[in-house]
Amino acid sequence: MPNSPALFVQSFAQRVEKYPAHTILFLHGGGAAGWMWHPVVDRLPEFHCLVPDLPEQGQSRSTGPFSIQHAADLAAEVIRTQARAGKAVVVGLSEGAQVTVQLLASAPELVEKAVVSSALLKALPGTEAFYSPGLLAWTYRLSVAPFKRSDFWIRLNMKYAAGIPEAYFAQFKKEFQEMTESGFVNFMVANQRFRLPAGLEKFTAPTLVITGAKEYNAMKESARELAAALPRAKAVQISLGKGSSLAAEHNWALTAPDLFARTVRAWITGTPLPEQLTGL
Known about the structure:
It contains eleven helices and eight strands. The chain is an alpha/beta fold.
């Protein structure tokens, strides 16, 4: 059974006394923690922002084992206890986007609006056998554990696998070094096995579903499937232009934080989305 302690949560409220009291809950991707949202939060001073570390990551390592449902349940409790009026706009990226999707199905009454960026809902072709717990454990033992002191290897993973800019090397390195075998297996299994949950029709508030223009077809198909399952969803793709990469567009909260913040603000306020987002 999952452990019961609450998630570690950072709360930011820079200028909310001058604005309507919207709370935004930001849910990060796997292999990171709440720090990945700081560049976006810094650009949204008019909102009350809640930034938790998800189970088995960052400062919430004692709240595992990680699963999408367990993370969604703990995120729901954060909204109930810390959000203004007990509701929040929920913004999730990658594994955090999958948690957001589960939250829309299991606790729709807590979510004011949602932004779901790169929520994988389909298997990547040819990968089903690779994501067995036993094989993932060996992957950790061979490609993570022996290299925890190798800045070269950590930086290689950060840049090409995660799409995280060099400025965040210290934070990424800390997460890489503190990742446990069980945590690695749990994240990867949860990410690859998550599928469209039942109950999404109950969430009738607006949802923005996003995928990178350079992401895998499985991710784009996932976005279309999610948008079709939600009563009030809009599916778009983000393009960061010539020379961009799959990893950079997947992790655009860090590679393009100003654009990400403008997108969230536009979705909350009902104003036009930035031109870099086009129909999917």
